[in-house]
Amino acid sequence: MDAINGTSAKTAKLTIGETSWDLPVLSGTIGPDVVDIGKLYGQTGMFTYDPGFTSTASCESQITYIDGDEGILLYRGYPIEQLAESGDFLETCYLLLYGELPTAAQKADFDYRVTRHTMVHEQMSRFFHGFRRDAHPMAVLVASVGAMSAFYHDSTDISDPQQRMIASIRMIAKMPTLAAMAYKYSIGQPFVYPKNELDYASNFLRMCFSVPCEEYKANPVLSRAIDKIFILHADHEQNASTSTVRLAGSSGANPFACIAAGIACLWGPAHGGANEAALKMLGEIGSVDRIPEYIKRAKDKNDPFRLMGFGHRVYKNYDPRAKIMQKTCHEVLGELGIKDDPLLDIAVELERIALQDEYFVERKLYPNIDFYSGITLRALGFPTSMFTVLFALARTVGWIGQWKEMIEDPGQRIGRPRQLYTGAAQRDYVPIARRK
Ligand code: CMC
């Protein structure tokens, strides 16, 4: 890309008053060109202003591409539909981390490496016992992932590529164990150790749902569904949590601390917390005949209510992940013999009505991945408080891939945005006795 050699065939002209500047225009492989404003302040004494980063490319990346108008999502160039249909999650992890699909030997080696890191330090279980039983599992996850930097000192030196790789493998491997521990702790059941003969998804389901007094056999259809859900959530270019990971990592912080920062950001209802919020909303609506009332509320600017699981900053078309999620939802309910799920009926009808409503059509608001994931995860046996935890588990590889890409970029610098200051101008300190 032109950004690397600093040459650009195209330029954009910026004129302020009588003076004009030529700004380089850079092109990627696909997607919109960008205007390089890196030298703007030095040349003009001005910043750009873009709260919410709606028009800002914060970095150069080769990992994930989204065409929001067409509803396209590619991991390293491969369409999400093909990966979800034909691949598995660990293969997707390899692809995101290394840039290519693995050969059979590479896949076997990667699976082996991840599998050999699934156990967490035994002392971590004592760390868990410090939490209240009713703590939200996301609170426990943020803390326990951050705490990994206190348990795995031999993989916190970010200047050592070997340590970076071990930290990456450790997080992909241990995240299901930590997520399952957070769940087990909240329901007062003993932690279940990983079983390395199982595939990634089955192992996770077993750690969540088995008890020491009974044999547990993961249902392959449900394991496959969970694996697909993980693939769908694995990466999503420079979203809020990924940008958080990059910003935290830009200061040189260790990878466990950076991923903990990403988890904290993901927790919010506008981001990963939306699946939990979407299911709560469907429950609150309660019956199909109350949908118009909620549609009306969503459209009312004086009402803070929004249709959760609807709308997206980038997708102005059907979220491609939502389509696969909807299909997976039907597969899971079918396998479990759930013929009638009132929440699914409400979701389907809500989607139908919203997609015909002028308000939603005009604003290009479509269901996003979170609209159907909550119903699916609930059917699989997860409580709502675990939904965002599963999102974090799956997104960990994306965060790590993006963090590694940034650290390995020789031009990497600390991220340091500026601001439009609107506070008081300089003034003199007033002693307290003279203040009114
Ligand atoms: N319900 C009702 N109106 C909405 C909704 C919604 N869910 N989403 C956006 N709008 C309206 C919004 O009021 C605004 O209308 P107007 O132009 O008249 O003021 C317009 O659509 C544009 O919205 P925005 O807030 O400027 O869009 P944004 O890009 O800042 O926000 C969003 C994107 C995802 C935060 C937002 O659509 C939302 O809050 N959705 C519900 C939460 C949700 O489902 N989040 C999951 C996102 S996908 C998973 C992930 O990436 O984490």
TrEMBL record:
The record's section on SUPFAM superfamilies has:
Citrate synthase
For molecular function, the Gene Ontology terms on record are: citrate synthase activity
**Catalytic activity, reaction form:** oxaloacetate + acetyl-CoA + H2O = citrate + CoA + H(+)
Pathway(s) annotated for this protein in UniProt: Carbohydrate metabolism; tricarboxylic acid cycle; isocitrate from oxaloacetate: step 1/2
InterPro entries in the cross-refs:
Citrate_synth-like_lrg_a-sub, Citrate_synth-like_sm_a-sub, Citrate_synthase, Citrate_synthase_AS, Citrate_synthase_bac-typ, Citrate_synthase_sf, Citrate_synthase_typ-I
Q: Does the keyword Transmembrane helix apply?
A: no
Parts of the chain that traverse the membrane: none
Keywords, in A-Z order: Acyltransferase, Transferase, Tricarboxylic acid cycle
Name the Pfam families on file.
Answer: Citrate_synt
Which family does the record assign?
A: Belongs to the citrate synthase family.
Q: What is this protein called?
A: Citrate synthase
